[in-house]
Amino acid sequence: MKHQNPLLKTLPKADLHVHLDGSLRLKTLIELAQSSRVKLPSYTESGLLDLVFKPTFHSLDDYLTCFKYPVQLFKNKENIERCSYELACDNLAEGVYYLEVRFAPELHISQNCSLEDAIASAARGLEKAAHEHNQSPEVCAGQRPPFIYGIIVCAMRHFAPNGDNSLAHLHNAALDLTKRAIACRDNQGLPIVGLDVVGREVGWNAQIFKGAYDCAHQNLLQTTTHAGEALGAKSIFDAVAYLCPDRIGHALHLFHTNQTDCPDCIQSKKFTEQLADFIGKIELPIEVCISSNFQTNPTLKSLEDHVVTTLLKRDMPFVLCTDNRLVSHTTVTHEYEILLNHHPLEPAALKKIIISGFHYGFYAGTLAEKQAFIRQIDAFYDSVIAKA
Question: From CA 304, how far away is CA 308, in angstroms rounded?
Fold first, then answer.
């Protein structure tokens, strides 16, 4: 990672869209692969960067091939706990005080790791890091904000090629995941704050997951969904119409009417304008992941063509996120650097974007607790700026 802007690194930030299995430390991945006897194409950091975690990919599907190695490692409770702990520590090291970690626990089921075990293991790792930080002298003295976290469980739009990818199975698996995650929240007190649906976008049908999202809504579990990452505005429309999410992940092609890889898209400028206007009016936040989008969309050449530029111009709500710290070679600080290098912002505008990451977080506590936390963040932000 390139040298980071010291002020941006110190400012309090949130990351609402980060995948656990795409955000391991490279050194840890190698170490765990060796101890778990998971075969890698290379056991050196440089080798893996050349062969697996490349700077760019041909498509989203190509990008997703990177995850087969971490997924194998996460069929082990101890590995999930360790990587969750390290992810929290890495975020704290760059001033991230609110973190929503997402992953698909169904992919990590093994003889020694149930779906519930996978979720609980991630929670233990995050809690360990939170406890260390929140008991530190700086936090106890009110000199730094506490670290708050939540877990988003992800249903799959597509399992492995040899898995059952029938519409009925995808529907049932998503619904089962949702029910069991809610039970973990309600019966074990695990900090599950949201539901997502992930995986290859080409060929997906939002209606398949309506049952799972209805279940989440009926049980007061908030939701987000990946949409418009590889496909066009029609994919986003379907997600909004059928799943009614509280946030949208990526929405890179929200304003694109000529997505050639989405033959069922409605090729209408009026349609995309109506959709964007609707999303803006209901203040549906977009989880923007700049580095990841450039990796998965090789035709994207400039930030001027990225959805974040139009969101800025239209004053539509968004939050900057990493997506995958390892796979996309990024941090939250780096995502802000990319934005500011292309769009220099006035101090008030930058603060609005950064603080919005805390406002749009799903947050496991009460509204009063969330508001108190945001007030702490706001005051800390001002103190950092005052010292700069």
Answer: 8
- Cα 4 to chain center, whole Å? 21
Please state, in angstroms and rounded to a whole number, the distance separating the CA atoms of residues 77 and 79: 5
User: Residue 284's closest CA among 243, 325, 324?
Assistant: 243
Residue holding tokens 């440089």? 46
Distance separating alpha carbons of residues 131 and 81, to the nearest angstrom: 14
Element (H, E) at 194: strand 192-198
For residue 261, the model assigns a pLDDT of 47
Q: Does any domain span residue 1?
A: no
What's the pLDDT tens digit per position in 135-189?
Answer: 999 999 999 999 999 999 999 999 877 788 899 999 999 999 999 999 999 999 9
pTM: predicted TM-score of the whole model, two decimal places: 0.96
* Domain coverage including residue 261: 6-387
Under DSSP, the state recorded for 22 is G
H/E stretch holding 98 reads strand 96-103
Of 334, 386, 313, 365, which Cα lies nearest the Cα of 146? 365
Q: Phi then psi for 97, rounded to 5 degrees?
A: -110, -10
The reply to whether 228 falls in a domain is: yes
Report the domain count for the chain: 1
Q: What type of residue is 265?
A: C
Cβ-contact 88, 137 below 8 angstroms: no
Give the 3-state secondary structure of residue 19.
strand
State the Cα–Cα distance between residues 211 and 232, nearest whole angstrom. Answer: 24
C-beta separation of 199 from 157 below 8 A = yes
Amino acid (one-letter) located at 23: S
Residue matched to tokens 């000529």: 258
